[in-house]
Write a structure and sequence with these properties.
The chain is an alpha/beta fold. The chain has 2 domains: 156 residues, 3-Layer(aba) Sandwich (Rossmann fold); 151 residues, 3-Layer(aba) Sandwich (Rossmann fold), CATH 3.40.50.2000. 45% of the residues lie in helices and 16% in strands. The strands form 2 sheets. Strands 2-1-3-4-5-6 form a 6-stranded parallel sheet. Strands 9-8-7-10-11-12 form a 6-stranded parallel sheet, with helices on both faces. Strand 5, helix 5 and strand 6 form a beta-alpha-beta unit. The chain is globular and about 60 Å long.
Amino acid sequence: MLFLAPNIDAFISTDLEILQRKYDVEPLTWRGIASIPRLASRITKSDIVFSWFAGDHSATASLISSALGIPHIVVSGGVDVANMPEINYGAMSAGTRKALPTKVALGFATIVLAFSEFSSGEIARAHDPRVLRTLYLGVDTRRFSPAIVKEGIVLTVGQVSAGNLKRKGMEPFVSSARRLPQYRFILAGKGLDGTLDQLRSTAPPNLTLPGFVPPDDLVKLYAKSRVYVQASAHEGFGVALAEAMSSGCIPVISNMGALPEVAGDVGQKVTFDDDEELAEAINRAMSMPASEGFRARKRIQENFDLDRREEGLTRIIDGLIEDR
């Protein structure tokens, strides 16, 4: 199997690890058009191609694998099919240069895998694939588990940049910290530009911005936090939300993207970009009983455990290999 991606983020590496447990997998990171000769050579030696996201890399792989009769799975549902010009986000809102490769990748793929029902709808609006299936992302619920004693921490996680201030709901999160000085707020995430330093210079005393948090330390931070906030404008799934809920955090989410799909009826939901409503919801969540955190964890265990992702991927891939 050839495993193709533009980068190997944490949630992408999770799929890579799953597939490596059963298949002979050769990963390839796309480096632009210079990667085409190596990509073509590797496809000819593969029984199946597995690509993360629709774009230049998977469009090229879709055309080559389709011509050779080699099955190609494309996982999609994020920025590659988003269309939100109001926040300058998404390949579908960025003009033909970005949209065309996405359409080619989706149109020539053997199977397109959406990672939520919301993302499935966005894929269908971007282009009509031959076969479109939904297979949720998964969380290792054994690793992401609650601490014995929760602390009064309100947490959100995400890379800090000018664009993410709006898209990830960081602005209303910071505003909520000012409105609720009785609680400890933490915004954890690597700074991608000067935005993190700007936030630190104006942050209220109850807001901590540690920057990048190593994975093992982040697990511990989820475990001891009481409330997790994901007030985003767009989420194709919401891995951080699922990790936090698996860790027993009570979710406070916006009514956007796949966030309501992941959280279900647990925690609090608010209108996107409403500072006052978000602060009120956080205050209510902090007053909810510990049982709400148990409900959050149970929802992830029952619907988004990593074993479900592994079983689904294995079933789909084995089916394609048998049909060859």
